[in-house]
Amino acid sequence: MEMTPETMKILANAIVLGASALGAGTAMIAGLGPGIGEGYCGGKAVEAIGRQPEASGAITRTMIIGDALAETTGLYALVIALLLMFANPLLGNLIK
Amino acid sequence: MPTALMLASAAAEKTLEVNGALKVVELFGEGSGLWLTESVIVQWIVILILLVVVLILRHNLKPVPETRRQAAAEMLVEFVRDTVHGTMGAKYNAYTPYIMTLLCYIMINNLMGLMGLRNPTADVSVTGTLAIMTFILVQYNRAKTGKFKGYFKSFIEPLPFMLPFNIIGEFANPLALALRLFGNMVAGTVIGGLIYFALGNFAILVPAVASLYFDIFSAVMQSYIFIMLSMSYISSAECE
Predict the structure, then answer these.
(1) Does A6 sit within 8 Å of B183, measured CB to CB?
(2) Residue B78, exposed/middle/buried by CB under 10 A (0-12, 13-18, 19+)?
(3) Which residue of B has its CA nearest to A83?
(4) CA–CA separation, B93 vs B95, rounded Å?
(5) pLDDT per residue as tens digits for the range B143-168
(6) Which helix (H) or strand (E) holds B91?
(7) Cα distance from B19 to chain A (closest Cα, Å)?
(8) pLDDT tens, B92-135?
(9) Domains in chain B: how many in total?
(10) Is residue B158 assigned to a domain?
């Protein structure tokens, strides 16, 4: 196939878009961290409620805050993945 | 960009609506860059809903509740008052109206996804604004309790070399606050869009289950988390 400048441009864009999609998928591996953290948090809260059922309100409140904080890193990864998928910041680096 | 790619990205934008809210009208003529977006219009609807509900709830109040309407209003106010009292302490009772407003506003905004509208909170500029309001209150509380000296001294505690970390931490809190609400809401929007996109014409039952979690549970939970974190940031900014 003849490589005209037009085909080369399409190919370059396709490579960048594909790599961005791979990067977005890889970024979401960070979902492991919040999963482990929140599971640990919930498990400990259940243990605490089992030991002290009368304090369940305060324990649940604290657990929710802990969950929300553990979630932060996962959300940073989600934002990066969304940027890579929909804002395509790397396409701007191609030579026009 | 080649036409095929442009068409593909336009299709993705249409089906998922994550590439920012829809732009409706450009203010002050073309090229000004100031857009009236879908988020702003949906927020006007939310403000109208809240206004009407509040006017109905506070109409004809009695010292002893007689109607179910008044009992419900008192329950809501008491819940927020007890939460503020329990989390921030008795000194901060004056923050109750702010926290109440924040809770109701964010919750109704999050629930707008049920009406087929785009959540305004799935727009980072909306959640960023809410987080900046909390950030200003944090700075205000620190300056008020510590005065001039205590305000600047709090940045070099416990040791002077902690200054950069303290400054980064000061800005990381509102950033995380904004991104948490935005991330959760936009995740719901994206996953809902993907489910509808994947199921096509057979989208029955499955989207309802997803909607139950993302549009109702997550919406209520995230507004609660937002106020809880706002309260703990504000009260922990206090200088001794």
Answers:
(1) no
(2) exposed
(3) B19
(4) 5
(5) 888 888 888 888 887 888 888 888 89
(6) none
(7) 6
(8) 889 999 999 999 999 999 998 888 788 888 888 899 999 999 99
(9) 1
(10) yes
Domains contained in chain A, CATH given: 5-93 (1.20.20.10)
Q: Do A75 and B229 touch (CB under 8 A)?
A: no
Query: Is 0.85 exceeded by the ipTM?
Result: no
Over the stretch A44-72, which tens digit does the pLDDT of each residue have?
A: 999 999 999 998 888 988 888 888 888 88
B8 occurs within a structural domain: no
Between CA A45 and CA A51 the distance in angstroms is 10
Instruction: Please check whether residue B133 lies inside any domain of the structure.
Output: yes
Cα separation of B145 and B138, whole Å?
11
Q: Is residue B163 part of a domain?
A: yes
Interface test with A, best of B87, B181, B228 (most A CBs within 10 A): B228
Count of beta carbons in the 10 Å neighbourhood of residue B66? 11
Per-residue DSSP letter, B64: S
Per-residue pLDDT band for B208 (boundaries 50, 70, 90) equals confident
Show the domain range for B230.
20-236
* Of B201 and B139, more confident: B139
**A71/B5 touch (CB, cutoff 8 Å), yes or no:** no
* Cβ–Cβ gap B221/A64 under 8 Å: yes
